[in-house]
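Comment thread on ticket #2218

A.B. wrote:
> Attaching the input chain for the structure job we discussed in standup.
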Amino acid sequence: MKQFAVIGLGRFGSSLARTLAGMGYEVLAVDADEGKVEDLADAVTHSVQANALEEAVLKSLGLRNFDVVVVAIGQDIQSNILVTVMLKEMGVRKVVAKASTELQGKVLKKIGADIVVFPERDMGERVARWLVSKNIIDQINLSPDYSLLELAAPEKFVGATLQESGMRKKYGITVLAIRRGNDFIISPEAGERIERGDILIVIGHNEKMKDLETEG
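C.D. wrote:
> Ran it. Output below, let me know if you need it in another format.
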């Protein structure tokens, strides 16, 4: 089972820690604020009050043994940079660092962060897409360019087969599954006919899927 450590328990860090723990993963939550640590004590595997800016303290947490360590120390980019550097020097396999701006992201990548995330920007983009979409139910960003969408079947596709709908050819997306009432059709054939009320689980490039999301 994968082990995750989350350093910094602000809104993003605490939400991430709770979600990972809820999915069944082992999670170590770390923050200098005792209150934040206590709030998560019952939700995660371990919660520790510690000042991650002190190298000796950071090493004592045994973070080299974790699969992923997420650095999410609020708005303090200097602290995020310092902790990221120390984690990479310690030999942590994968460090995910939180950034608020593109410039911060570039700096974090240059000093060794394996992945940089932009929680505020990404959530803003996600909410905006929900607001303008007629069909999108949920979205998981797999990378900056690709997403997994849960989509109510557009009315114009009802009665057509997957092949006839042109989703792969026109929109460059793949339908992974169809949820139809209580049934779940995995890897549907090209000849599968779309019915009213179907929920499509699709994967594809974000730019190419924008038109599909707003189809009537």
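A.B. wrote:
> Thanks. Noting for the ticket: The two ends are 43 Å apart (CA to CA).
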